[in-house]
# Entry
Amino acid sequence: MEDHRSSKFPELTRELLADLKQVFQTGEGQPFIFPATGSGGWETALVNTRSPGDRLLAVRNGHFSHLFIDCAQRHGLVVDAIDVEWGEPAPPDRIEEALKADADKAIQGVLIVHNETATGVTSDLASIRRAIDAAGHPALLYVDGVSSVCSLDFRMDEWGVDLAITGSQKGLMLPAGLGIVCASPKALAQNESAKCSRCFFDWGDMQKANATGYFPYTPALSLLFGLQESLNLLLEEGLENVFARHHRLAEGVRAAVRAWGLELCSKRRENDSDSVTAVMVPEGVSGADVVDVAFKRYNLSLGAGLARVAGKLFRIGHLGALNELMLLGALAGAEMAMRDVGIDIALGSGVAAAQDSYSRSAQPLTAAR
Amino acid sequence: MEDHRSSKFPELTRELLADLKQVFQTGEGQPFIFPATGSGGWETALVNTRSPGDRLLAVRNGHFSHLFIDCAQRHGLVVDAIDVEWGEPAPPDRIEEALKADADKAIQGVLIVHNETATGVTSDLASIRRAIDAAGHPALLYVDGVSSVCSLDFRMDEWGVDLAITGSQKGLMLPAGLGIVCASPKALAQNESAKCSRCFFDWGDMQKANATGYFPYTPALSLLFGLQESLNLLLEEGLENVFARHHRLAEGVRAAVRAWGLELCSKRRENDSDSVTAVMVPEGVSGADVVDVAFKRYNLSLGAGLARVAGKLFRIGHLGALNELMLLGALAGAEMAMRDVGIDIALGSGVAAAQDSYSRSAQPLTAAR
Amino acid sequence: MEDHRSSKFPELTRELLADLKQVFQTGEGQPFIFPATGSGGWETALVNTRSPGDRLLAVRNGHFSHLFIDCAQRHGLVVDAIDVEWGEPAPPDRIEEALKADADKAIQGVLIVHNETATGVTSDLASIRRAIDAAGHPALLYVDGVSSVCSLDFRMDEWGVDLAITGSQKGLMLPAGLGIVCASPKALAQNESAKCSRCFFDWGDMQKANATGYFPYTPALSLLFGLQESLNLLLEEGLENVFARHHRLAEGVRAAVRAWGLELCSKRRENDSDSVTAVMVPEGVSGADVVDVAFKRYNLSLGAGLARVAGKLFRIGHLGALNELMLLGALAGAEMAMRDVGIDIALGSGVAAAQDSYSRSAQPLTAAR
Amino acid sequence: MEDHRSSKFPELTRELLADLKQVFQTGEGQPFIFPATGSGGWETALVNTRSPGDRLLAVRNGHFSHLFIDCAQRHGLVVDAIDVEWGEPAPPDRIEEALKADADKAIQGVLIVHNETATGVTSDLASIRRAIDAAGHPALLYVDGVSSVCSLDFRMDEWGVDLAITGSQKGLMLPAGLGIVCASPKALAQNESAKCSRCFFDWGDMQKANATGYFPYTPALSLLFGLQESLNLLLEEGLENVFARHHRLAEGVRAAVRAWGLELCSKRRENDSDSVTAVMVPEGVSGADVVDVAFKRYNLSLGAGLARVAGKLFRIGHLGALNELMLLGALAGAEMAMRDVGIDIALGSGVAAAQDSYSRSAQPLTAAR
# Structure
């Protein structure tokens, strides 16, 4: 292992930054890698581009968009929140309307969570970009891509994302410990005038050090080596194939939920997330109990409903290093746990639907090596 | 890591040998650890106790018992084989009969594969011991416990096993690379007069070196450290719990097979193996195709039918570090592969039966931590 | 591995926090673990206890104390710096004087780097505490213990440290990626009124989540498991033994430097650091060249002089998982590199002095196991 | 990880066998990989090519050649041993003489240990081949290359080696657990008529299985993956560079021994081993004490004198993944231990000589990356 002060270390830094640009699908963006998490990614994106008192427009459609807004407010930013029902995607029309109403262009940025991990909803960034453009508004587009980058299609340049934020522990298949942000030239340009106080998360120090191939303070070295490996795996597989793989796995999970006769938290089929599925439990049953029983009786880690949807749903994650057999096992475990807590589920019913889906979408046998 | 010549190394050696005696359930047996595999275990058991021309009685009820016999023959031993249908356990009555017929006690040993990995059949060692005793015959009892020791109950002392043989890669949950044999005092006593040629597998060198805490040549050090960890895990869980866990998982698999309407290779319920299940495929279908499709389309490793049962079955292993969700995923994969090759299987049917089994046998929720 | 949302996770959290209190030598302190680094530790200590405009007194005696001050200033704090020559420890008399001069107690905190990694100087925290007390001043004591905690004696309670800051990658022998801070009750009490903006590094969220055994956002799970292991190793060895081991290794390095006829950057013997030694290179030679040659020709990672002492010295780290043979190899490498760049060094001279030191201080042979 | 029965496994097998041919420097040789050790390599080489009663000529110049002979004898082979003083290489003239005296070509093979690990002596295989050829003798050449293959130049084809034997834990830098043998076509041709009994170590089964890409019984899978990685590393570095690296490290160790005023066990400079150095201790001192003190006081693992040279020497291994700093540390440790047991050694003296050697032979600074 290279030491982070060794004269060979810059090769690693340069490779990582170049590869990150590829996964963000950007030519001009500037990636930053902090020894933090996705939550630190929010912070670095905001404090390096904004000053206290700045106004932001944000959509709140789940727990993570709520926290993103909270992060902005704690740093002295004023957030106009568009609240939509949890389960809905970010609404381009309401964004357009709000921006059009902002005659003096006081709004400095629009905050969107691309994939709401709490509800299993993917917002349509292309249409949001079109809404901003239709309003002729110069606000920057801040996007939380924590559970989308490297799992779902994420086109930073094409969609005009100015701040793209992610972490190491989702699509990059690493332990948590890196907060990664990619800044458009427009976002970078705001760094100097941004007055929010910052030191650990400062881009200036990072840019200066990265330019020479180093970091301004000790980086999370082991995770950087892991990141190199992850990026190689993803780029070797090809991003399109990675996205297709996630879609295929998600389709099976959704088929299972339909077979169970349960509803998704996601209200619109076209916005169902390919990286996480949130399943509504029937009235009178607690989603938290499903999670608890799944863990204690069957060693299965499901996600719980958070905040406003606490107890109303459970979540099945399906991103990263995972295959159909693991998911089928997880679906089987969810069925057992649901039945244990009194949900009327025929054992094997969801599994069968997912099997059917996976069987149809598997590589044709003739093409298998 | 201690070096294998360090003055602290003997502590490890002594701990391993003591713990191995516990898992073989023996007070007097002497364990030997060779840098080899279970097949090497057969060889060391035979060549250290026998001379060319010695006669042995063996049951051939599957591919591994066939190979065990072959190993004996290649070392110049004369084997009287009791052939039974593959799927049958070793027959105590025929063993007793053969030994009774051996009036001049020419037979020096009886060879049994405790758990036939090729057919999923566990022979009843207690009844075999009774058969030998009933015949009043002094032959040593040689037992292949490769897929039973640490997975199924194995009582070396109680059942009068003289040579117990296993490897590292099954119940001990390690990579392959250790051939382990445990010798009763009666077996050890034959070492000096045994004339089969041997050097690598010689017990004399091993005993002399082990007595001082070392090995006669470089041991497979990394596996010895792994063995220490495995034995700690098993003894901490408690052997009875380990066996119960395997039984529980196997019950689910068998429930799935019944739900599929397929037959086990194992002919007698009381001898169904708790570590591996061999499933007969219908006439006109190849079990090899099931295995192939499972691997290529669904990343599932099933075992193929071997030798006499090639093509007629596929096998599902269920020993070692495994839980019910992984097995349910495997059953789901097997269902898809079976359907792909034309077996009339309702997707989810076997999974549902296994879920029902696991759900009933899971830790009561109230007792869950 | 437990999931960070599993119902068994709180056991880990509680064990980590309890063990951290032991290594900080505190009964009342509250540890916080952030997925960051020691630099993040500075930030969390400052922003959770201070408001913009607050005044601090700080000693600047090396590059890391300079950066600590810089961090405070970037968050809007006003720092009165006591500049001393690099190589000097923090001067208790000047601290006492400055605090006595602060009649209206405007100074809110005193910033000290316990062990200046850049110069190899350990300041005497006990005497600094006495100085603060002698001045009858209520300022909080902020201590950077990044290269001291778990390597050098660090008595949080006895020395009245209010904010103790460290990272994972030094005495805790882990990869970088954790910023750890321990707050005295007095420090905690300031949290509510502190106006510095914060979100990622906020203690309030952390305390609330930690109280239930969880974290407010995804923790760096793999490092938490590593931390558990490190803390176990350190507490099992015993902190006194850990400190003695570092002292013994450092004594050998200092003997080598004396034998080379070179000066330490550290000006006072009683403040020589037991975790890092900075060696002044003669006039006309660049310390950076020593570092460069050591790395390129001999695979040896030395530390370079930073900022004001750039080129004037090189540094040998000697903390964490290291033994005398590795250090002797490093000293030998440093000798070769020094000679390569023209320093008049007799090869083996420093090594011999270190050997003599280690040989005298090694465990008596009779006591060796 | 591929399963050892998976349909992708044959790719690995084929790559390993092809790469092994490269490191043995053979075009026609057939490599075999057994889950065993180098001692198992001896056995498989002998039992697959010989019949009980066959005569062999062997040189005994150290403990490992003694054990190689012992292995042959235990399998019923008759060995004419050429005993030379330990420290001497195999004498080509005496081999030639013995073969010439064997008028009826009764001698079937010549056994040589290429690099005697016990004495640090490398025999000259080219001259031994010339001796055999000069005698016009058809005997096969059996070579133990355990501590030479992948560390010292080993030209199987050019030197007419018929059986080349090695293990995984030396030049291949893996844990012990693989016994590897490479057979010339002439050696392979003897397989069928060879009557030594064998099963585990049989080539016939191995060839048949390897031809399809599989193994006749469970291989040591984890080590096979390690082997793939090791071979890649070695071939990427280039064998010539690997050998040069070992020579460079060995030169430094020998310079140290000269500086200590001690003798090597190796009697002839041109046969000093580049993978291990055996150092004679002065009369009245026990080499075993040096080894013991080095381990207990300084955590240094030296090799002890074996059998005939027990107590008379200690050994320093210098093959595999090792660099000059580690060796300098080891030399420093050896100096301390020697002085502790009463050998008159100036601390640092050997280290200085080795430093001088390494400094001269290091990559020119201008060429360093």
